[in-house]
Write a structure and sequence with these properties.
The chain has 8 helices and no strands. The chain is mainly α and 223 residues long.
Length: 223
């Protein structure tokens, strides 16, 4: 059923039943808070500032709990993906392998953040795996985008409904690429320990919020 014609509350229930749905809402709240903290709207020593910092940190840990077992999703996606060439297979391994390793390591980082184990050294491994995954993911999506553009050109002047769906598919693919680039920027900032102009708190927080909004839109449309 077209999401536009669905009952809002039923659609919202379906959306919130998914782990990604709740995770992205938490991501929006976290990076909105980080943007407020990065601005000069609140005094650094104010009680509200301390409460917002505590809230942001708590939401960050909560989000990691939603990644438990999520690496299995990447394993299954890799197994199910069609491979039309050795280069395509390599990109699939880079994308799903990197993201899968990232989600696997994140489980232990969640345990570390929760105070159960000491695994700070895993954060760099997690960040590098995430970055590798984004490189593969962006490469695959650019490849898919070219195919969609070719299909649009071939179908030009065809059925209006088919053209509409192809254009919507193209828009979602472009948004997905922009999301990966925003997330990749945040990962690079983590690897650089927050150094550099593009690693400024306001820039990274804005990138995080931008990514969260795109992901929320994609999840809402797909459920």
């Amino acid at each position: 059923m077209d999401p536009k014609n669905r009952d809002f509350l039923n659609h919202l229930e379906t959306y919130l039943a998914k782990r990604d749905g709740v995770d992205k809402l938490l991501k929006i709240s976290r990076y909105t808070t980080k943007i407020i903290l990065a601005s000069s709207l609140l005094p650094e020593s104010g009680s509200l500032t301390h409460r917002l910092k505590s809230f942001e940190s708590s939401v960050g840990v909560s989000r990691k709990a939603f990644r438990l077992g999520k690496f299995v999703q990447d394993i299954n996606a890799l197994r199910a993906s069609p491979r039309d060439s050795s280069r395509h297979l390599l990109l699939l391994v880079i994308a799903y392998g990197g993201e899968g390793l990232y989600y696997f390591v994140e489980q232990f980082i969640w345990l570390a953040k929760s105070g159960l184990i000491d695994a700070k050294w895993l954060q760099k491994i997690s960040a590098w795996a995430e970055l590798v995954g984004y490189v593969g993911s962006v490469s695959l999506k650019i490849r898919d985008l070219r195919k969609i553009k070719d299909e649009i050109e071939m179908s030009n002047g065809g059925e209006e409904e088919k053209m509409k769906k192809l254009k919507e598919k193209k828009t979602l693919k472009v948004l997905s690429i922009l999301q990966d680039l925003a997330d990749g920027l945040m990962t690079i900032a983590d690897l650089r320990d927050g150094k550099g102009v593009l690693s400024a708190p306001s820039v990274i927080s804005s990138a995080g919020l931008f990514s969260a909004i795109i992901s929320t839109h994609k999840n809402w449309v797909s459920c």
